[in-house]
Amino acid sequence: PRGLHDEFDFDTGLTGFYYSTATKHGPAQVFHHRLGTPLDQDALVFQSGSREEYATVSEVDGGRALLATDDDGWRHTDVYLKQAGDTTWRPIVTGIDATFQTWWVDGKIWALTAWRAPNYHLVEIDPAHPDPSDWKVILPEREDALDGISFAGGKLWARYLHNASTRVEMHEMD
Questions:
Q1: Nearest alpha-carbon partner for 69 in 105, 107, 41, 96
Q2: DSSP line for the chain
Q3: d(Cα 133, Cα 115) in Å, to the nearest integer?
Q4: Are 30 and 68 in contact (CB under 8 A)?
């Protein structure tokens, strides 16, 4: 369907996908579409808190949970988790004045953020203990800005900006 800020992520069974859409007049919404069914049967999965936001949802933990982000532009990102079968979203990160890009890694949420690190750092958030005082720093902030991460070959790949060029570093996952 037509909309702004469209995001797209297949479900773990590859039987459908999650997509987000927003309009200039309402909040961002994330729907689940089952392949082969009409769009009017898509299930609303998540809705952002205001109309200036966009949202994403991904299945994590082998499809046993959903991870949602609710982005208010470049100001902040709220992060929520919902176990399969639950009806409510559990806040993981809310009200922090920073953006968060998230990945699910071995039952934890890894988040690339500029919170308390203007050049960004990568932190690990345990969903059972989401208070920022319990976060573990995976890649600390440094002089070069951490621009992104990827996972390949069982390794963590970090992309840094250095003197207007990109440097890529490989790290072990532990």
A1: 96
A2: ---BS--EEE-TTSSEEEEEEEETTEEEEEEEEETTS-GGGPEEEEE-SSTT-EEEEEEEGGGTEEEEEEEETTTEEEEEEEETT-SSPEEEE-S-SS-EEEEEETTEEEEEE-TT-TT-EEEEEBTTB-SGGG-EEEE---SSEEEEEEEETTEEEEEEEETTEEEEEEEE--
A3: 13
A4: yes
Quick one: which of 131, 42, 149, 144 has its CA closest to 95?
Answer: 131
Nearest to 30 by CA among 69, 77, 76: 69
CB under 8 Å to 72, separation ≥6 — which residues?
Answer: 50, 52, 53, 78
92-145, pLDDT tens digit by residue?
Answer: 999 999 999 999 999 999 999 999 999 999 999 999 999 999 999 999 999 999
Give the predicted TM-score (pTM) of the model.
0.90
